[in-house]
Amino acid sequence: MKGLGSLAILASYAWLLVSGQTDVCRVRDRTFSTEPMPGGSHQPADKMNPVSGAVSTRFYVTVVNLTPHRIRLENTHSYQMDIFDFGDVPQGRARQNRVKYRGTWATGDDAGEAYYRIDGTDKTFALRLKSYIPNSAPRRVVLDLSGMGLGQREYVFPGAETSVSLVITGSNRFGFQASLRHGPGNWMRRMYNVIRDRKVRHLVMPGTHDSGMSRITDKITSIGSETNTQNQGINIYDQLRAGSRWFDLRIGSIHPNDNAGRYNGFWVLHVNDELATLAIGNSGESLDDVISEVNRFTSENPGEIIFFSIRYLVGRYEFPDRGPIMWNTAMVNDFFSKLRAINNRCLNLDTSTGFENQKASYFMDQNEGKGCVILLLNGQLPGDVPKESFGDGIYHIRRIGIQDHWSNKQTADAMAPDQIAKWRSFNRGGGSDYGNLHIAQWLVTPDAVASTVLSLQAYAIQPTNPSLYWAGVNGMDPEHWPNVLMVDYIGVQQRDQWGWDQLSAELYTLAVGLNLYMVSENCDVHGKKSPLLRSRGMGTEEDQQRLETSWNGIIFANGTTINNPPPTLHLGRVEILRNGTVLGNGTVLETSIPNPWF
Ligand SMILES: *[C@@H]1O[C@H](CO)[C@@H](O)[C@H](O)[C@H]1NC(C)=O
Ligand SMILES: *[C@@H]1O[C@H](CO)[C@@H](O)[C@H](O)[C@H]1NC(C)=O
Ligand SMILES: *[C@@H]1O[C@H](CO)[C@@H](O)[C@H](O)[C@H]1NC(C)=O
């Protein structure tokens, strides 16, 4: 009898193995590294000035590793550089690598390369620094991931002493993805099996600040201009494709100066204070355009969860100097009937549970799997008008528990530690699991003079967004991360380069990687084995969701793309290492030699 008993135990153990029941998250499988990383540098305020910035010789290349493999530096060489400081990037960490060119911009014969390997795999990549003299965009870096089947891209540094960032996620089993270009629009649906059982407050998603301010439309007569009032370079359709799932939409009605009872449509607004006697700012997209952009995206990419936090909800005169026009019930009803044109709204959701506590699948499965566009009213509606309509899929913001953290700082070096301290002040998972959806506003609020002179775009793409990838990422670990990473100028890497093919996918790839890698390493949040650690064939569903690695083309600094380059074409590659070249081990060449790593 005793023997039979142990046989039964053995049999059930074998069954557990076969049925995949041992496919659980185990703390001892965690790969996240706690190795200290060198600190980084935010762009100094004076370097935004193009005159002082033009002579700057310091630049940074940030590498973010959201894979379970160490990213190992194999070799470097540099010529005409005083600093060429590259290093390993452990799992879950980011390294801001430093470069300082020697002398001024006179030589143009400087060059440096850093060669990396994804540890334990056959995947390699190279980072190449080079200046082009004379040229209107002389300071460039090439991210050459052709050795991973992920293409090459040449970037121009967005300003003096700024960083270009490379985000890599995936694993050797799962496939890799990098930030050189955007992946498919439906990033949530593609990782349905990874996120379906996670609560909404256990997801990480990009968000956009003043989302509808992708152009200036002058529907109110005020001093708001592109430099001080426009917060995005791409419209809401492209923001969705760039990964954004949380939108800060501020809507007002515009009324003729002599008639508060009439109005000329609903418009996105960005003003200093929507209730002020004199509102200073301007208008952006029309609500009609926003609606058609969302509908275009969801028809092409069904199955996502998309939140619109809709603020303001007041009227303003065309000359906005006589205070707000509070909406009456008729105005609210007009507004609701407009919102009914949005497809994939989710009607009659369960409001007995906060939306933040519902599983992702609760929303992704709605509308026969077409997902949800969730409208959350967060405006200035007076006491006696409707504030939600469950049957229309319109909800009050209090249906979701959020903590929206705005630093209100003028510079990135003041904003970044404040944002990081906030999301580190609570834990994810386990007994003390934080209960709200945390919105991290990774953006700066320069005063009117500074933003008019230097532009909100320059603030976003030079000091602010690049610092997310070293300071922000190194402030995260499997127990500490925000849910919404809200930014200005999502996807924009290069000033005024707003065409879809000119964008860059750092935030998209960061969000995918934080969900796939970082959150999956927290066993209190993700009970199953990390998708990046599962063996191939463990579940065919996961295999279908493997990251695509089918593009190995080149994107040049000027935006030109070649999809099938000759295999020998590697931008910026150095064939001869000149006399004076410094190797990674400190050796200085005394004669010119062919590049042994060419
Ligand atoms: C862009 O750059 C590439 C490589 O330098 C060049 O071949 C191409 O002609 C350029 N395209 C334009 C439109 O300038
Ligand atoms: C430095 O690296 C070069 C190239 O790999 C090698 O030839 C040389 O011996 C190394 N020098 C030292 C001191 O290790
Ligand atoms: C290499 O450079 C050094 C210093 O500039 C110089 O003294 C030396 O003659 C050079 N060697 C060759 C082979 O060019």
TrEMBL record:
One GO biological process term: lipid metabolic process
SUPFAM superfamilies cross-referenced by the UniProt entry: PLC-like phosphodiesterases (SSF51695)
Gene3D superfamilies recorded: Phosphatidylinositol (PI) phosphodiesterase
Keyword Nucleus appears in the UniProt entry: no
Segment forming the signal sequence: 1-20
Any one Gene Ontology molecular-function term assigned to this protein's record: phosphoric diester hydrolase activity
Keywords assigned by UniProt, alphabetized: Signal
Protein name: PLC-like phosphodiesterase
